[in-house]
Amino acid sequence: MANLVLPPRWRLPESQVTPHDAWLNRRQLVAALGLGCVGAAVGCTPGPASGPVPERYPYALPEFARSSRYPGGRPPTVEITPEEAASAYNNFYEFTTDKAEVWKLARGFQPTPWAVEVAGLCHKPQTLDLETLLATMPVEERVYRFRCVEAWSMVVPWVGFPLKALLDRVEPLGSATHVRMVSFADKAQMPGVADQPWYPWPYFEALTLAEARHELTLLATGIYGHALPRQHGAPVRLVAPWKYGYKQLKSIVRIELVASQPPTFWNQLAADEYDFLGNVRPDIPHPRWSQATDRVIPTGERVKTPMYNGYAAQVAGLY
Which residues are 128's β-sheet partners? Predict the structure, then answer.
């Protein structure tokens, strides 16, 4: 008798994927957008009438695993966010604080050629170019819920590889306890970096080593079956679906293994609003709004936020 292999419970079903031709049909999606502001502490304003047309993506993904990405039962109230909506509503302060303008201001950003340095407390520090990462890492597609600390949410099909695979490649030392990550910052290409000098650029974040090695933690190189567009953090970004979006830094250039908890960007600036862990906890309100519910992009429907963004069964043991 063949062995029965049960899929991990984080996987979402094939039935939830937006058909490729549906999200390419701009007229249908524009009618469904209706994006608006979602922070409970600020007034709502109308979002853009339309989002970006799918761009000419800056690099090609290799073939990746899809056959087992969504086995299992259909979870309640989960639908893939249309790509045009996800691409037109982004937090990426390196370009602007206006979510609806990021995709426009990111057009001049050049994410190739690219390399990621992996260093610090490891036996085999190395710098890997994008081509090597794509060719040698176990790339696959996963559908994850995404929750912003501002109380809005999406459901996104990411393409990427487990951060653990990259860490195993460099062989962390026993003294390593945390993984510090740094984003790209260039005033010439990123107007937000030039216009907001009061921020301590470049953006930097960190996970515990256990979080970084967890099976859910991805380094994403693609989205919706193709390469990451610039506004999503091309060409390499972090995805940890049980954490708020501010933990999931974009356009990564350096990963460093360290021996103690390092400072992080928002925690250093406003520790009372952005804690180091950044876990989605609906029972712990933000100082300026509740985290008990979130507003779904693009419908505007308000839904209850589950503990750890719905991944409690997988990650609660870390805490």
Answer: 116
Upstream peptide bond of 287 is cis (omega within 30 degrees of 0): no
> Could you report the per-residue pLDDT of 5-14, keeping only the tens digit for each?
345 555 555 4
Range name among 25-34, 159-168, 213-222 with the lowest pLDDT average: 25-34
Average pLDDT along the chain: 85
Asked if 246 contacts 183 with a C-beta cutoff of 8 angstroms, the reply is no
pLDDT confidence band for 57 (50 / 70 / 90): confident
Alpha helix segments (H runs only) across the chain: 20-24, 26-32, 83-87, 102-105, 130-136, 163-170, 191-195, 209-212, 265-269, 312-315
pLDDT confidence of residue 38 = 32
Strand bridging mode 204-208 / 226-227: unpaired
Q: Is the peptide bond before 298 cis (omega within 30 degrees of 0)?
A: yes
**Triad 91, 46, 249: Cα angle to 5°:** 5
Distance between CA atoms of 240 and 207, rounded to whole angstroms? 10
CATH class for the domain made up of 14-318: alpha beta
pTM: 0.84
DSSP secondary structure string, 154-191? Answer: EEEEEEEEEHHHHHHHH-B-TT--EEEEEE---TTT-H
